[in-house]
Amino acid sequence: MNKTIAVFFGGRSTEHDISVITALSSVIKPLELSKKYNVVPVYIAKDGRWFSDDKLKDVSLFRGQGIDDFCAKSKPISLVFDGGLIFRKSGLSNKDVRIDIAFPAMHGSYGEDGSLMGLLRMAGIPFVGCDMAASALAMDKVLTKQVAQANNVPTSKFVSFSKTDFNKNHDEIIKMVISDLKFPQFVKPAHLGSSIGIAKVDNIEELSNAVEVAAYYDDKIIVEESVENLIEVTVPIIGNDNLQTGLVERPLAHGDDFFDFETKYLNGGKKAGGAKQTGSQGYSELPAKLSESLYEASLNTAKKMYTATGCGGIARIDLLIDSKSEIVYFNEINPLPGDLYAHNWRAAGISSVDLAVRLVELAEDRFIRNQKIETTFSSNFLKQF
């Protein structure tokens, strides 16, 4: 009998729409093609309600007002923790669906940041991807850079501060940034992905405006000094203890451009006036044309940071290379790459179906291993009361 896998997507996140595409195209479809699992879609609406229905497997539902109409007419599911995780659909007769394995396909807040993983840990079922602690760490750009520093991995110079501090001490914060870092700089919300809220700045006025935008999306802001002679690369990795890397991939930009949300997802991977390239969202060099030593250094740095942050299952490590000094800098970690970076794995010889199945197997392996760890302790402490 096939096991039942719940695929979670959507969510109360700025990356809600990207999550929908990741789930439908890179998770649900490949899992169903494997014919090994009963796949249950779990859509979390932008208002936080949870729905489950086979209609949610059709991307056309999410165009226009279709999904809003569906949510208005449908009843949300409820969760039951009873020796595992059960979805309960209310109606004329309650229908329970017991979940064997969870496959989170959620990006950003309330999902990829470890929130959903904590719930699944409490439910006591296997789930795909990084565990709760690694997810929370990986989604914090400041903490991951501090992990890099602690492990003697080069990372670009940076400063960070809270939204509260910026609102109270605007001028002092700006002075601190320009005192510690040279222009150009990158301003980022510390916890978001998909390049949302990110800006490249070249002067104080742009810096101040960019920080205000980042603070709109996050309560922590990071400002990084730009790496000179930049080559940007990324490395997808799967595995728990034994790691398997995909190909080193180089996003292609024109001049000093960087890829914001619009370029990545709405313009087919091209800046205005730029030619479309081939790759993730249509803008990558795969594999990256690097010297053998830089290629190998990129793989080693990526694996070191994957291990140092406790990642498991899957993640993507983003790196920055100074082409003149040939220093490989750690940039950030994406604990759930958009579309699972399936295009990269295909180029490396792993199909979308094999990738999805392998990730489920890794989840089950980790769950079995963790079950052997004792989490309770018997004592006489309560007898004294």
Comma- or semicolon-separated keywords:
Rossmann fold; globular; D-amino Acid Aminotransferase, Chain A, domain 1; 3 domains; 4-stranded mixed sheet; Dna Ligase, domain 1; 23% strand; alpha+beta; 17 strands; 385 residues; 34% helix
What report would you give on this structure?
With about 375 residues, this protein is of the alpha+beta class. The chain folds into three domains: about 5-130, Rossmann fold (3-Layer(aba) Sandwich), CATH 3.40.50.20; about 155-225, Dna Ligase, domain 1 (2-Layer Sandwich); about 230-370, ATP-grasp fold, B domain (D-amino Acid Aminotransferase, Chain A, domain 1, 2-Layer Sandwich). The chain is about 35% helix and about 25% strand. The chain is built from twelve helices and 17 strands. It has helices at about 15-35, 65-75, 115-125, 130-140, 140-150, 165-170, 170-180, 205-215, 260-265, 290-310, 340-345, 350-370, and strands at about 5-10, 35-45, 50, 80, 85-90, 95-100, 100-105, 160, 185-190, 200, 220-225, 230-240, 245, 250, 285, 315-320, 325-335. It has a four-stranded mixed beta sheet with strand order 3-2-1-7, with helices on both faces. Strands 8-11-9-10 form a four-stranded antiparallel beta sheet. β5 and β6 (about 95-100) form a beta hairpin. α1 (about 15-35) crosses α12 (about 350-370). The radius of gyration is 22 Å and the shape is globular. The termini are far apart.
Range of helix content: 25-40%
Oligomer: single chain
CATH architecture call of the largest domain: 2-Layer Sandwich
Strand content: 15-25%
Distance from first to last alpha carbon: 49 Å
Looking across the biggest beta sheet, what order are the strands in?
3-2-1-7
Number of strands: 17
> Poorly predicted ranges (pLDDT <50, ≥5 residues)?
268-281
Count every helix, treating DSSP H or I runs of 4 or more residues as helices. 12
Alpha-beta classification: alpha+beta
Query: How many domains would you count in the coordinates?
Result: 3
Q: What best-fitting shape do the alpha-carbon axes yield?
A: globular
Mean of the pLDDT scores?
Answer: 91
CATH hierarchy class name of the largest domain: Alpha Beta
* Annotated CATH topology of the largest domain: D-amino Acid Aminotransferase, Chain A, domain 1
Give helix and strand order, one letter per element, not per position.
Answer: EHEEHEEEEHHHEHHEEHEEEEHEHEEHH
Query: What is Rg?
Result: 22 Å
Question: What's the main sheet like?
Answer: 4 strands, mixed
The CATH superfamily of the largest domain bears the name ATP-grasp fold, B domain
